[in-house]
Amino acid sequence: MLTASPRPSPVTPTIDLSAPGVQHGHLRLPYSRDDSAWGSVMIPICVVANGEGPTALLTGANHGDEYEGPAALFELARSLDPAEVSGRVIILPALNYPAFRAGTRTSPIDKGNMNRSFPGRPDGNVTEKIADYVTRHLVPLADIVLDFHSGGKTLDFLPYAAAHELPDKAQEARCFAAVAAFSAPYSMKMLEIDAVGMLDTTVEEMGKVFVTTELGGAGTASATSIGVARRGAGNLLRHAGILAGTPETAPTRWLDMPSADCFTFAGDDGLIVFEHDLGAPVRAGDVIVRVYPVGKTGLAPAEYRAAMDGVLAARHVPGLIKAGDCLSVLAVLREAP
Ligand code: CA
Questions:
Q1: Segments making up each domain of the chain, as ranges
Q2: Distance (Å, whole) CA 62 – CA 98
Q3: Among candidate residues 94, 87, 224, 104, the one with its CA nearest the CA of residue 147
Q4: Is the peptide bond before 318 cis (omega within 30 degrees of 0)?
């Protein structure tokens, strides 16, 4: 297992993370390459601070093809007035900046998947160096961390904020209280396929309040999903006491992913034909999606059926799939925690 090394981070912030007021700058990470011998990766960062209070760390584009986070956070960084703030807000709208600029999930430099690279390495690849800086220099400053996700180019999700089941039940309750405050249309108790290397796990293991989201996907963002992201970020800052006032709550439906039976993976290549749209109720045994062979006509599709009663919470996009791809995710309605 990787552990944070005492080796110093190569990342240098161009702003003072502890100064009051509004600062716009970069995390500068040296990156020597063919077109710039002594070049750098310049990751945008904004800090808005005023007086005493908690610190929130808000991150977008952990995966580079997910846009609700950047859309909400570039605007928040531009508009947040320090006079309204009690404490500090650290905003990184595009955490995996090389991936964000390329419009890809992973970094074009090293194929690094940011949310499989934590806690990172100061002597690793570019993605691991960014992760290491976040782990050792940003998360420790934070009381609450919000990491925006959506489905990227190959998944589409119901809009939800989420937290995880945690061994520390008091911490878990604080995380779900923050999810409730975010007030997305859906609120999820989320099960991960593989939690190793995630920012989520790193923050949770430090005992912090952590909220993640899946707010849509398909490689874009809608006016509605961006609205959910903007309102949620503001609500979380109000919930933390960094902004005055109470969260602007809206109705939310609580969902649970009770087991790995929630996930369906394609066993076939082909054309996906869904029987249900996101949010639709399904019953155990219902056909969710058919996968048609596309090499010739006359062949029957493979049928994928629901393993439980629930709602369709995520689906593959766009229209073709390969064996092994995640085809769909079901979730079950539950009582609010
Ligand atoms: Ca993601």
A1: 12-256, 260-333
A2: 10
A3: 94
A4: yes
Helices and strands: H and E segment counts in the chain: 6, 19
Q: Do residues 314 and 149 lie in contact, with contact meaning Cβ atoms separated by under 8 Å?
A: no
Distance CA 118, CA 200 (A): 9
155 alpha carbon – ligand 1 mean position (Å): 9
Q: Which two tokens stand for residue 168?
A: 């520390």
* Residue 52 and residue 140 in contact, taking contact as beta carbons nearer than 8 Å: no
What is the DSSP secondary structure assignment for residue 135, as one 8-state letter?
A: I
Dist. CA 94 → ligand 1 center (Å): 13
The domain 12-256 having CATH identifier 3.30.1240.10: the answer here is no
**Ranges under pLDDT 50 in the chain:** none
CA–CA separation, 118 and 323 (whole Å):
28
Domain 260-333 sits in CATH at 2.40.50.100
What pLDDT does 12 receive? 98
Assess contact for 212 and 203: CB atoms under 8 A.
no
pTM above 0.70, yes or no: yes
Residue 34 Cα to ligand 1 middle (Å): 30
Residue 300 C-alpha to ligand 1 middle, in angstroms? 33
304 CA to centre of ligand 1 in angstroms = 24
Q: State in Å: Cα 19 to ligand 1 middle.
A: 31
Count Cβ atoms below 10 Å from residue 331 Cβ, excluding itself: 25
